[in-house]
């Protein structure tokens, strides 16, 4: 090994003489797209929270009218409302970025031409709207 | 317009420096000068010890990728006037070990690239020299975009996943795998599946999308990766649900 190559100036393991920039803990603040990406990753926690919340609701319903009333009281607490509002914001971010990603993954060929990306995204948003409307109708309209 | 502009260039000499330091050079500001022309001016007239890679000057060789004012860019296609009045900060591409000044070590990418077999794989025994493979314009169009990759590695410099997870196969290697997977002449898709559909392959990507923003050739590696995730998921489902013959 030459003298030059044997002089290591790197703090991390690697080939001698190579400089590796230290990783910053705050790397994700460098760009808007990085921040958005980290928020989107974080949103999975809130998606999981909504699943837990739904399971709590089901368990409360199964437990009879008293436990259901308890659940309603818990849900009406200001901190619970705040948590659920934040969770809703994150779940919307999750859903919207997910649907915007769909045209990247799904390539639809019709008559030898690729369906434009906005059409694929619009189809997903339309399906979301229709399903939400059906659920809203079941909850509110069909009483 | 001022007739000069200042370049702040990262200098790193492994024999004496423990970390890069910035050095300033004043170069002529001309309408048709790219950052690379400024660096060549420095090398020729001001400081012959400055090291950087370049070759074609026309955005096709992929060797002059550097970080210009914090953004990964091909310095031959990035013009000084767009940064006037300056200064322009020129650093080596991020996420790679630096060998000297603006020269990075590309061994990691060169090790990963052949793993995806970026060539036409055929299962039949005809040697290529003996046969002609015809393609329709539509078949060409299916992969043409991905064939524009020039291996400049700007996408690796832009990718935060690659920074955190150095084992990640990376945007360009996956886009090039798709370039061959989608080629009607290729039969190697199932061989590439074993490399691509792994935790270090497409599933490491969390879709930041910066690779596509950084790509100077419009390849859209992020799109290639998301598309392959769907292919990989479908393949996994098929292998679970269907009998061997019907996959």
Walk me through the structure.
The complex is a heterodimer of chains A (143) and B (247). Chain A has 143 residues and is an all-alpha fold. Chain A has two domains: 103 residues, 3 helical TM bundles of succinate and fumarate reductases (Up-down Bundle), CATH 1.20.1300.10; 38 residues, no CATH class. Chain A contains five helices and two strands. In chain A, α2 packs antiparallel against α3 and α4 runs antiparallel to α5. Chain B has 247 residues and is of the alpha+beta class. In chain B, the strands form two sheets. Chain B has a five-stranded mixed beta sheet. In chain B, strands 6-7 form a two-stranded antiparallel sheet. In chain B, a hairpin with a 2-residue loop joins β6 and β7. Chain B starts with a strand and ends in a 6-residue tail after the last helix. Chains A and B meet through α2 and α4 of A and α5 and α9 of B.
């Amino acid at each position: 090994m030459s003298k030059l190559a044997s002089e290591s100036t790197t703090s991390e393991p690697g080939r001698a003489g190579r400089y590796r920039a230290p990783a910053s803990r705050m790397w994700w603040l460098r760009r808007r797209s990085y921040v958005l990406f980290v928020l989107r990753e974080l949103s999975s926690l809130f998606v999981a929270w909504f699943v837990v919340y739904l399971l709590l609701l089901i368990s409360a319903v199964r437990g009879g009218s008293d436990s259901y009333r308890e659940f309603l009281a818990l849900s009406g607490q200001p901190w619970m409302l705040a948590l659920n509002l934040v969770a809703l914001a994150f779940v919307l971010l999750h859903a919207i970025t997910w649907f915007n990603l769909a045209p990247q993954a799904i390539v639809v060929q019709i008559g030898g031409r690729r369906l434009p990306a906005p059409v694929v995204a619009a189809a997903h948003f339309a399906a979301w709207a229709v399903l939400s409307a059906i659920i809203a109708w079941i909850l509110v309209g069909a009483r | 317009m001022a007739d000069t502009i200042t370049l702040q260039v990262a200098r790193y000499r492994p024999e004496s420096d423990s970390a890069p330091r910035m050095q300033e050079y004043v170069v002529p500001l001309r309408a048709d000068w790219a950052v690379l022309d400024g660096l060549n001016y420095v090398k020729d007239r001001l400081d012959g010890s400055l090291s950087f890679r370049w070759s074609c000057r026309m955005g096709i060789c992929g060797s002059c990728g550097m970080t210009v004012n914090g953004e990964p860019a091909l310095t031959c296609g990035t013009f000084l006037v767009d940064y006037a009045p300056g200064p322009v900060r020129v650093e080596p591409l991020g996420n790679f070990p630096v060998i000297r000044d603006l020269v990075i070590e590309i061994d990691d990418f060169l090790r990963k690239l052949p793993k995806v077999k970026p060539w036409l794989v055929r299962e039949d025994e005809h040697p290529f020299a003996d046969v002609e493979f015809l393609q329709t314009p539509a078949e060409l169009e299916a992969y043409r975009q991905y064939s524009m990759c020039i291996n400049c590695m700007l996408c690796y410099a832009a990718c935060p996943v690659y920074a955190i997870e150095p084992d990640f196969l990376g945007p360009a290697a996956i886009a090039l795998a798709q370039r061959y997977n989608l080629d009607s002449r290729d039969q190697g898709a199932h061989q590439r599946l074993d490399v691509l559909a792994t935790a270090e392959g497409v599933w490491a990507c969390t879709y930041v999308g910066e690779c596509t923003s950084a790509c100077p050739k419009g390849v859209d590696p992020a799109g290639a990766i998301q598309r392959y995730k769907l292919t990989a998921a479908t393949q996994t489902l098929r292998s679970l649900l269907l009998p061997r013959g019907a996959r």
